[in-house]
Request: fold
Amino acid sequence: MPLGLLLAPDQFLLFNALGGVAQGGGFAALLTVIAVAAGDARQASALSAFVQGVGYTVAALAPPALGLAHDVTSGWSLPLVLMVGTAASFGVFGMMAAMHGGRRRATRAAR
Reply:
């Protein structure tokens, strides 16, 4: 959504709808990656608590941080670029976790 708003701000409604769909799908994918990456129920609950704790902390801190970036720059470009960077980093870390979970499953299956 932030990238769409940077490139075509007049299409706000479209990018807002796409962002909502992506957020719902991303949350479902996140829970799946947690289940795949964990070795057992105890690890799954610990990983889930960690991931959700970090996620909700970032979600709580993002609005004031982005608002400050807007106030400092008097524009939306920097806050939107920060959102793109944050989303990209979550994507990278999610892929790393998914690959780690896949390797862990393959190792368990080989035993």
